[in-house]
From TrEMBL:
GO terms for molecular function: oxidoreductase activity. NCBIfam families: hi_GC_TIGR00026. Coiled coil: none annotated. InterPro entries: F420H2_quin_Rdtase, Split_barrel_FMN-bd. The lineage of its organism: Bacteria, Bacillati, Actinomycetota, Actinomycetes, Micromonosporales. It holds the Pfam family F420H2_quin_red. This is Nitroreductase family deazaflavin-dependent oxidoreductase. It comes from the Bacteria.
Length: 139
């Protein structure tokens, strides 16, 4: 139920907010390349920006479509920042097997109230978390 609610209601609303240049504070937008279609795929994620590294915690582990896309093509883009300051950053993603995703969420939660709220909401529907690290190209 929670996965369907997220995919059919919440994610489309968050993507629409990004389209209207009104992103929800604490959120970012991940662009992957579809593993079968080769088309861009957009997934709302919590803002895990830490300098030139962006941390993601997959709620569904390797079963998440965006993780499967990353495994097929690890070049990604992330839209970070709000309003007119929002910008795309390109990077290379990799799964971090030996990272504790719950601890990673706690660390990222120290990045402000909006990020903490996103992470708590995400954590509530997490089934089998997995950490993904994106090394971003310098601005």
């Amino acid at each position: 139920m929670s996965r369907a609610l997220q995919q059919r209601l919440i994610n489309p609303i968050v993507r629409l907010a990004w389209d209207w240049k009104l992103p929800i504070p604490g959120d970012a937008l991940l662009e992957t390349t579809g593993r079968r279609t080769g088309q861009p795929r957009y997934t709302p994620v919590c803002d895990g920006l830490d300098g030139d590294v962006f941390w993601l915690v997959s709620q569904r582990g390797r079963r998440a479509d965006w993780v499967r896309n990353v495994e097929a093509d690890n070049r990604v883009r992330l839209k970070v920042g709000g309003g007119r300051r929002a910008r795309w950053r390109t990077g290379t993603a990799r799964i971090v097997e030996d990272d504790d995703p719950r601890q990673r969420q706690r660390i990222l939660g120290g990045g402000g109230r909006a990020r903490r709220l996103c992470l708590r909401t995400s954590k509530a529907v997490t089934e089998s978390p997995l950490t993904v690290r994106v090394d971003l190209e310098p601005v």
